[in-house]
Design goal:
Layout (H helix, E strand, L loop, with lengths): L22 E2 L7 E10 L2 E4 L1 H4 L1 E4 L2 E2 L10 H11 L5 E11 L5 E8 L6 E3 H7 L4 E2 L10 H13 L13 E4 L5 E2 L14 E4 H6 L3 E2 L7
Parallel strand pairs: 4-7, 11-13
Antiparallel strand pairs: 1-8, 2-3, 2-6, 3-4, 5-9, 6-7, 7-8, 10-12
Helix pairs in contact: 3-4
């Protein structure tokens, strides 16, 4: 990522969201201005530019609307509130500009409606507990640290998606993997030297829940 913007704690800034980590004093120098056409869900929206391209929030995995997952509607409404149709947003790209589905991958910034500065939507939706951090340790993500802090903040307060999750539950992982599993997961069948830890510890290590056994 190019020249970074200055991030401040929301505790000392006036904002219309609880911006503990998502408030930025200024925009990065290498952003691209765009206009919101439609918000699909808590991690995907469409912009008018680039032939109505779909944009996926980088480093974020929000609850799915189809099939409906818990807090999916709340997550989508939160992003729609910050990114209403016709709003100006600023996109910042990392090393990989598109995913395998040809969606743009970006950090999205909006003006802080509560005053000066800007809000990073990616960080905001995570710190509200309306999305998980999705940043495998083997991939480059320039805002990894601030997203991790936002995730820890939401989990420690049991916000939204974290409200009913047992963060002390024991899970398992192979040292070579970036995912964690239940003890009976088929993916661990032939794995040796498994590590045992809590869900919370696994998330602190930036590990992702297995898509097959759903350990959370």
């Amino acid at each position: 990522m190019g020249a970074s913007c200055c991030c401040s704690s929301g505790a000392t800034q006036k904002s219309d969201v609880d911006a503990q980590f998502s408030f930025f004093d200024s925009l990065p120098t290498n952003v691209e201005e765009a206009t919101v056409s439609h918000v699909y869900d808590g991690d995907t929206l469409i912009i008018r530019e680039h032939n109505n391209s779909r944009v996926r929030l980088l480093g974020v995995d929000a609850p799915a609307l189809k099939p409906r997952e818990r807090c999916a509607v709340e997550s989508a409404k939160f992003v729609k509130r910050l990114c209403p149709k016709g709003a100006t947003v600023w996109l910042q790209f990392d090393e990989v500009r598109k995913d395998q589905y040809e969606r743009l991958l970006a950090y999205i910034f909006v003006r802080n409606a509560g005053g000066a500065g800007y809000i990073c939507i990616n960080v905001a939706v995570v710190e509200q507990g309306l999305a998980e951090l999705a940043a495998p340790t083997d991939t480059h993500l320039s805002m990894r640290e601030v997203l991790l802090k936002a995730s820890t903040y939401a989990r420690s307060r049991k916000l939204n998606i974290w409200k009913k999750i047992d963060l002390n539950k024991k899970i398992y992982r192979s040292p070579e993997e970036t995912a964690f599993h239940t003890a009976t997961c088929e993916d661990l069948k032939n794995c040796m030297n498994l590590e045992e830890m809590s869900v919370s510890a696994a998330l602190d290590k930036d590990l992702a829940p297995c898509k097959n056994c759903h350990p959370m």
